[in-house]
Amino acid sequence: MPGHRRARPVSAGALFFRMIRFENILDKVRAYQPDGDLELLRRAYVFSAREHRGQSRKSGEPYLVHPLEVANILAEMRLDVVCVVCGLLHDVVEDTLTTTEAVEEYFGAEAAHIIEGLTKISKIEFASAEEHQAENFRKMLMAMVDDIRIILIKLADRLHNMRTLQHLSDDRRLHIANETLEIYAPLAGRLGIGKIKSELEELCLKNIDPKAYGVLAARVEAKRKWAEDFITEIRGVLKKALEENGIEAEIHGRTKSIYSIHQKMQRQRIELDKVYDFIALRIIAANIKDCYGTFGIIHNTWRPVPGRIKDFIAMPRQNGYRSLHTSVITDSGVPFEVQIRTPEMHLVAEQGIAAHWKYKEGRPLAEDDVKNFAWLRQIIDWQREVDDPHEFLNELKVDLYPEDVFCFTPQGDVKSFPRGATPIDFAYAIHTDIGHQCVGAQVNGQMVPLRHQLKNGDIVEIHTQRGHGPNRDWLGIAKTSRARNKIRTLLNATERKRSIEIGRKLLDKESRRIDLSLKQVSQSAGFSELLREYGFNKADELHAAVGYGKLSPRNVLARFGSQSPNEQKGAGASLARAVKRVLSRGEAKIKVNGMDDLMVYRAKCCNPVPGESITGYVSRGKGVSVHAVNCANFLNLMVDPERRIDVSWDGAKETKYEITLSVSVEDRKGILADITSIIADTNTDIRNVAANTFEDQKGTIDVTVSISNVKELDRIARSIKGIDGVLGVERPGSKKESDRSATA
Ligand code: MN
Fold first, then answer.
1. Which residues have beta carbons under 5 A from ligand 1 (an ion)?
2. 3-state class of 667 per DSSP?
3. Is 61 annotated as catalytic?
4. How far is the CA of 166 from the centre of ligand 1 (A)?
5. What is the whole-number distance in angstroms between the Cα of residue 65 and the centre of ligand 1?
6. What pTM did the predictor assign?
7. Per-residue pLDDT tens for 638-677?
8. Catalytic pick from 37, 95, 104, 311?
9. What is the pLDDT of residues 101-113, one digit of tens each?
């Protein structure tokens, strides 16, 4: 055999290039698809053998071994003929001179399409810079949406490469193993292909941390004899109990994979002896009724470990996985895990989406399949909507490592979520509108804050309010990509709508400054020219850009007015100078030279009060935030001076309030004159004075004054009180002064 120089055999299979024979693959496919186009399969084999002739793998083996093994993995998953054909051909376009056209000519459009998809994603390296990683993910997903078989073949390809990783350099090995652990194993998990997922994870640990793997493997090996005896014993006990109850079931015993044991020990910081599912029984019962029957018998025979019972039959995992899980302890104190499922559930547990696929041969991912894999649907929707690749990648990573939490609606419908999910996620899981209008939640009958983390078994009731909408904070609270995506989409749409409105108003204002109206400007010939220059298709896009503060209205409309060059220079700032704003006290709604509804709000960072020196800043989609001129935050914002705008408090139009003071007085001559003159001294307008009937030498005088704030009112009240003969001052229809200070 050529080129084989490895000193130490790693597996017996590789030692003699015991190449899998094509006939074996053919037999497998024939067994499950007797009327499939086996001739096509044979042609693909011959074609692949010819194209890869003379090529060898790093191990020294003929290259053909690889496509054969990949095809074999696909045949073991009982995938359709075209899929196995593509397994044989998957590297021909990438690694030989063969073209996609040639593949199409010999093997048909379907195969060519899959091969093309595989070739497109073949160069993807995930451990690259974040942005590339995100883009790569996108490509993978597009391929997946296009035809799920592309990903199934990719996973088979990766599995065989991982199985033969020992032939590569340490660097390469580590790189590929890390990438597999981060991307491909979770992806297999998400698609429900448990069998490939666990083998990939096992191989990853072996390559990434060979020392830890070796130590643990040795410890597990040391317990093997004991474990085998133990399994034989409990199998016997269970078999007897099941027979007595007339249940027929297959019982398989095994020790857990090294990877899962390692994970569990790391995550829970425990020793091997404490790993509850070091030994696991898997029971395949004929039907669901027998599954639950077996479940009961097991709990009758051994003591269940609290908190370990999981009913994934009633509540399937997001990837479609169904089984009953429990852990029990024998009388001698040995814990073990039990999984109970039907043959159909077992198939889905091992093959996931591939199990669904094989019933619908020859068709691309059908609507039904997508429904079965809600996750896939969500990812597809959402990758279309998310623009920022970093965001997309981060979300996807969160989503690839789910730890499901199950909660109920008050009607008993079950919803599953990743760990850390909140009522907001729950609300969006019910309906997008429920999510948007969510204002509060009750969990198990108790009001909880929206950031409350849901736990298994929680009953969640969402409170909604019409017209309510999400805010940016929600993005930090929601955990599911569905909720986050819906929130972001709505926020962006709202921001955009508001920006268009703001932009239009700013442009209208600027048009009027140059003695035109925005309508006139928009209808002029120069306007479409202008849109084209800025690269906008519609006026709204221009309005939005101005509203976001990306463009200054003066620069945009400069060509329509006649200005001195000087003025054109600091255009952003001078526009601003022209803008006067009236900020009515405590309200966000303001008037700008006759325009209303323009959103202006006092910045939370410095919260300027009337009278302070202020300045404005066009914030993205929100309007104009008003800061105190010495606000540190504002100084930081000044990096974008185009968005600065001058604002001022409008002193002239200060709102006045009419207030009536009721003054109780002694009957003294001239007291009315004293009161009115003291009010006049404070520069306050008197609107009305009414003196009431005097009794017992006492009486009241009601004075109506026009004031602009409470301070002014207090000042007047104090002055009046100081007048000789005044007994007290009150504001009728309002609380007494003493009460007011008590509640303040
Ligand atoms: Mn390959």
1. 91, 157
2. coil
3. no
4. 16
5. 10
6. 0.54
7. 656 667 766 666 544 456 667 788 888 887 777 877 887 7
8. 95
9. 888 999 999 899 8
